[in-house]
């Protein structure tokens, strides 16, 4: 593992369209804006960051598998795949890493089909409804999870 523990931040389908996509729900920031804010936050927390987005389920699964032994934790906004992908849940379980799930919107205030996510079954915690701030809070939580794990080891 690198000198600083690194966190993989994964973004699922359609999140590349942030800023243009339903801004009344998802806000006006682009994914690049969020990536930059995450990089600054991770630096302050003494963490390395690998920030990625894919519209392809298989690619997200491969990246999740590859995180095992390579990264110290995963922050994931699985987007629509959270509601549908048992395979992505399985990959998160394969990683054996602490996972924090993030949603920009409050999925519990939205359509019933958004209330359940398979991926949350692999998550230590979930943050939703706080917009892009959720990613930064997730990184803070992850820094603590990594520290606690180290303290226990
Ligand atoms: C989302 C919520 C999901 O229901 C939706 O499919 C998304 C984005 C969010 O960040 O609020 O694509 O994960």
How would you describe the overall organization of this protein?
- This protein starts with 5 loop residues before the first strand and ends with a helix.
- It is built from five helices and five strands; from the N terminus they run βααβαβαββα.
- Among the domains are: 13-36 and 46-56, no CATH class; 97-120 and 135-153, no CATH class.
- β3 (73-77), α4 and β4 (99-103) form a beta-alpha-beta unit.
- Strands 2-1-3-4-5 form a five-stranded parallel sheet, with helices on both faces.
- It has 153 residues and is α/β, with parallel strands linked by helices.
- The protein has helices spanning 23-26, 31-45, 57-67, 86-95, 133-152; strands at 6-11, 48-53, 73-77, 99-103, 125-128.
- Bound molecules: 1,3,4-trihydroxy-5-OXO-cyclohexanecarboxylic acid (DQA).
- 1,3,4-trihydroxy-5-OXO-cyclohexanecarboxylic acid (DQA) is lined by residues 14, 77, 79-80, 103-105, 107, 114.
């Amino acid at each position: 593992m690198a000198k600083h523990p690194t966190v993989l931040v994964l973004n699922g389908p359609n999140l590349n369209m942030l800023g243009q996509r339903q801004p009344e729900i998802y806000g006006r920031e682009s994914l690049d804006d969020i990536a930059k804010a995450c990089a600054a936050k991770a630096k302050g927390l003494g963490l390395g960051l690998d920030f990625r987005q894919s519209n392809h389920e298989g690619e997200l699964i491969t990246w999740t598998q590859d995180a095992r032994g390579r990264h110290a934790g995963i922050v994931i906004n699985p987007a629509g795949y959270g509601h549908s992908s048992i395979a992505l849940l399985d990959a998160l379980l394969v990683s054996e890493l602490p996972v924090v799930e993030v949603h920009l919107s409050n999925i519990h205030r939205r359509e019933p089909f958004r209330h359940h996510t398979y991926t949350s079954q692999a998550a230590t915690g979930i943050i939703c409804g706080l917009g892009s701030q959720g990613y930064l809070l997730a990184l803070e939580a992850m820094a603590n999870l990594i520290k606690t794990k180290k303290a226990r080891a």
